[in-house]
Amino acid sequence: xxxxxxxxxxxxxxxxxxxxxxxxxxxxxxxxxxxxxxxxxxxxxxxxxxxxxxxxxxxxxxxxxxxxxxxxxxxxxxxxxxxxxxxxxxxxxxxxxxxxxxxxxxxxxxxxxxxxxxxxxxxxxxxxxxxxxxxxxxxxxxxxxxxxxxxxxxxxxxxxxxxxxxxxxxxxxxxxxxxxxxxxxxxxxxxxxxxxxxxxxxxxxxxxxxxxxxxxxxxxxxxxxxxxxxxxxxxxxxxxxxxxxxxxxxxxxxxxxxxxxxxxxxxxxxxxxxxxxxxxxxxxxxxxxxxxxxxxxxxxxx
Length: 302
What we know:
Helices cover 18% and strands 53% of the residues. The chain contains four helices and 17 strands. Strands 1, 2, 7, 10, 11, 12, 13, 14, 15, 16 and 17 form an eleven-stranded mixed β-sheet that branches. Strands 5-4-8-9 form a four-stranded antiparallel β-sheet, with no helix packed on it. Strands 3-6 form a two-stranded antiparallel sheet.
């Protein structure tokens, strides 16, 4: 056998030997590390932001740092993830774009998450009863990597972070007062209370609302001024409302003559942010609604 072939084989053996020594060394380091990630990617929840809030769900973006400690680039076709708040599974989905992280490097990805609030109701009630203002957010991720030496492996990684508990603000209708009556225009004042159970204040901006009776939109309004909502408090707010043209007769007829169980609905939408300029809530869209019957309005019920 030619000398060059022997040298090539020797170098190959040295390479495999070095890789094996490195592999065993990494195993030892993995046992000592708090994350145990010397041989697998490390994931960390960096931040979160809320983009849309309704009575049914909250849409969020989770910023996840993925660190590659290996001396080689790794790729994953997809990433499956589950989101837990406290002990409750609130969302699960797949990040479909695939991942590629260069050797000994890290990358930041955004996981879109839809949290359905019914799944959180029990957790938030427990936190409220115990006056707890923070909660552990946990992400469980699973993905397949094709790695040198180790071959194809499936990784399951848990990461968690304690963050403030978040309570969706609620709007309670107190009263609708008839104001200036006219043939072409009727002004009303809608008094509401905004309930904020969070330990931080809010700002409502560009608040818009509509009032419907039996499915027919009769009145609408807009408050362009910033509304400041106090923390851990109930803040009274008065919204101006104007009847739509040619709706005055319809409204009076419905209010005075229809059955008391005729339904009404008031829809609100606004941009919301933390008064302390917390980027997690910056310019989030908040939408909610109040429903009841005309008996509630005529009886002055809250």
